[in-house]
Amino acid sequence: MGASPEKINSVTSIGIDVGLNSCVTLSNGEQFDSPIYYRKSERSLAVQQKRLSKKKKGSSNRLIQKLKVVKVHRKIRNQRLDFNHKLSRALVDRFDWIVFEDLSIMNMVKDHHLAKSIHDVAWGQLIQMAKSKAEKAGNFVELVNPFNTSQECSGCGNIVRKGPSVRIHKCPECGLELDRDVNAAINILNRCTVGTTGRACGVMDVGLGYEVGSHSF
Ligand SMILES: [Zn+2]
User: Fold this and answer.
1) What tens digit of pLDDT does each residue of 33-44 get?
2) Residue 141 Cα, ligand 1 centroid: separation in angstroms?
3) Cα–Cα separations (whole angstroms), residue 80 to 10, 33, 67, 95, 123
4) Ligand 1 centroid from CA 191, angstroms
5) Would you please indicate which residues are annotated as catalytic (active-site) residues?
6) Distance from the CA of 39 to the center of ligand 1, in angstroms?
7) By three-state DSSP, how is residue 150 classified?
8) What are 62-109's pLDDT values in tens digits?
9) What's the 186 CA to ligand 1 centre distance in angstroms?
């Protein structure tokens, strides 16, 4: 009666941490970097926007600068669309249950509105694409509470305070030491509702150390 353990185990689930650095980290330790040209465009947008803010209102120089900003915006939009399409396709092809943080209740950066808005839009799009592809494939995308996902120890639940520049999660309670984004991705996965057996799938064995694989499209 009921599903056999093998059956339950065959549900593959994955937690996904989206970063401010255009990088996506999976709970199994894999990382997907956005292409270098995308990051270049993001930097260029910041520069062009700063220049725009210094131009006199109503001047022709301001208009010219405004067009430059629009052009970089468009480029970023297209590059992001391409990246998110490929990444969401890869995720849905590989995993039955995909878990993200709920961006609508996430406050990733304070006092850095430009970066925040860019990344919220980018990751919001990735999640939307993953959702629609998952629906078609009969898979699931779940959004979980983002509170403390980067501070909580995925090994023991202890809160380990660290600023954004600290890249390694080191827990004094249980001794767990791993990449901060991988730790966050595991916490995200652990908050999903798929069930404990499913949860274990797609999570690396943290006791054996880990290797972060890097992928680019
Ligand atoms: Zn711990």
Assistant:
1) 877 777 788 789
2) 27
3) 32, 12, 20, 22, 9
4) 16
5) 17, 101, 181
6) 33
7) coil
8) 999 999 999 998 988 888 899 899 999 999 999 999 999 987 765 544
9) 13
Whether the CB-CB separation of 209 and 27 falls below 8 Å is answered with: no
Range picked from 6-15, 29-38, 146-155 for highest mean pLDDT? 146-155
Q: Which residues pair with 142 in a beta bridge?
A: 99
175 CA from centroid of ligand 1 (Å): 6
3-state secondary structure of 10: coil
Ion ligand 1 — residues with CB under 5 Å?
153, 155-156, 158, 171, 173-174, 176
Q: Cα–Cα distance between 112 and 41 in angstroms, integer?
A: 18
- Using CA atoms in the order 128, 8, 144, 205, what is the torsion angle rounded to 10 degrees? -110
Sorted by where each begins, the domain ranges of the chain are 5-34+96-205
